[in-house]
Specification:
- Helices cover about 75% and strands about 0% of the residues.
- The chain is mainly α and about 190 residues long.
């Protein structure tokens, strides 16, 4: 009795299954990276939402510091309008720098440093800075895994033709590394 399946058909079926597995793996990595980017955006938005309250609290004590308030507001707007990881990183660096200057103003106002709302907001922002750092690390880890998968064989054979593109890392712009660190304030 003759074999009904030729070796060529079996090989094609194996290749098709393997191709589907590679494709599904790339889709999964891409989706996980996109979800991690969403987490980064959520934490950045959380910080941006806290900023107006912090500005309002400090404004009550240091109304003459309009330039710093304008810088914070402009940086917050840039962060809200950022669409890519590199745009978000640049806007985040600007906001971090502006927040650092805003919090430095508080040093000159002992009554502000004792204000319960200010202290609570400062704690909220510090916690959010930690969340941003964790979300950024998680996103960059997943982006690295995804980018490696689309550059290695067999993923590289399917990634280009199927439209899988490299994900950008969330990193501070060059020369902004010092500004990127969370502002520190001592009382």
């Amino acid at each position: 009795m003759k074999n009904k399946f030729s070796p060529i058909l079996v090989a094609l079926a194996v290749l098709a299954v393997a191709g589907c597995n590679v494709y599904n793996g790339l889709v999964d990595k891409s989706e996980r990276t996109d979800a991690a980017w969403s987490d980064v955006n959520t934490t950045l938005q959380r910080r941006a939402d806290l900023v107006p309250n912090l500005v309002a609290t400090v404004k009550g004590y240091a109304a003459h510091e309009e330039k710093v308030f304008a810088e914070v507001s402009e940086a917050r707007s840039r962060l809200a309008g950022a669409r890519t990881p590199s745009e978000s990183a640049a806007a985040d660096a600007a906001l971090s720098g502006a927040l650092g200057r805003l919090l430095a103003i508080a040093e000159a106002y002992p009554e502000l440093k004792a204000n319960e709302n200010f202290l609570r907001l400062q704690d909220e922002i510090a916690g959010t800075e930690n969340r941003i750092a964790v979300a950024r690390k998680d996103y960059n880890d997943l982006a690295r895994q995804y980018n490696s998968a689309i550059r290695r064989i067999p993923g590289s054979l399917l990634a280009g033709p199927l439209g899988f593109e490299k994900k950008d890392y969330f990193e501070p712009p060059e020369g902004q590394a010092a500004v990127q660190r969370a502002p520190t304030v001592t009382f």
